[in-house]
Each structure stands twice: as C-alpha cells, then as structure tokens.
Write a structure and sequence with these properties.
Order of helices and strands: HEEEEEEEEEE
Radius of gyration: 18 Å
Structural class: mainly beta
Oligomer: single chain
Distance between the termini: 45 Å
Helix content: 10-25%
C-alpha cells in the first residue's frame, strides 16, 4: 500500500514539475571567445497584456560572467517600431544572471530583444538579438 502511495505522490510531483518547465523558454547565443548569453522568458508563451520576467545569463569560459554592464532594448518588429533607449539590467548577486522584472507586451506579433554586453573596459558584444512571437490573449 505504501508503495502505491509513494508512486502516486511521485507522479503528481513530476506532473507539477513538467507543468512548471513548460511555462518558460530559454534560448542561447554563442558570442565567441568563450562567451555565451542565454535568455529565459517566464512565463512562455508570451501573451498580449501579460507581464513576463526575463533572465539574461552571461557565461564566460564556462564561469559566471559577473560584474558586467548588460543593457537591453525591446520593440515590436511588426509595428515598424524601434526602441532607441538602452536600459541597464541589474545583476543578481554577482551570479552572471541579469534580471528584467515585469516586462509588459501591449501588442501581438514579432518582438525583438537586443543586448549590449560590456565587461570591464572591453565591449564583449553589441546587438545580440533574440526574436519572439507574442500571441493574442
């Protein structure tokens, strides 16, 4: 009887974990010279009127890319708009993870995120692009 109960609890827990993992998406760009930028959107898929958290994770030579200046801009590509303002993203306790909290999407279509990365005096990369679709509610 206990084995059945443990199995049922395990299946329920796996179902919860798999549902959580479906609510985010991560894409990665190789920046060259051992640098990698991963972008995680949560929740995913993106919907009009929805707010999302965005995590930009910077790795350099397989270690956290800490102490860097990371900037982003976003815009709806289909609307012909471009955002000319670059915004700084704060790093989360020297972990190489830079978090944008509560980004809103006000129209459906293709959206673009662009990033500039600067570590010390060196500009690592300018204009790293991630494109995503935003669906109607």
């Amino acid at each position: 009887m206990h084995t059945f109960a443990y199995m049922a609890i395990s299946i329920a827990w796996l179902t919860v974990l798999s549902a959580c993992s479906m609510q985010q998406r991560t894409d990665t760009r190789d920046l060259g010279e051992g640098a990698v930028l991963s972008l995680t959107l949560q929740p995913f898929p993106l919907l009009v009127g929805q707010s999302a958290d965005i995590y930009a994770t910077l790795r350099y030579q397989r270690a956290a890319g800490t102490g860097c200046r990371v900037q982003y801009r976003q815009f709806a590509v289909d609307a012909g708009a471009t955002d000319t303002v670059w915004r700084d993203i704060p790093e989360q306790s020297r972990s190489g993870i830079y978090k944008i909290r509560g980004l809103d999407f006000n129209r459906e279509g293709r959206w673009r995120f662009e990033f500039n990365l600067e570590c010390g005096e060196q500009l690592v990369r300018r204009g790293v692009v991630f494109d995503y679709a935003v669906a109607p509610e």
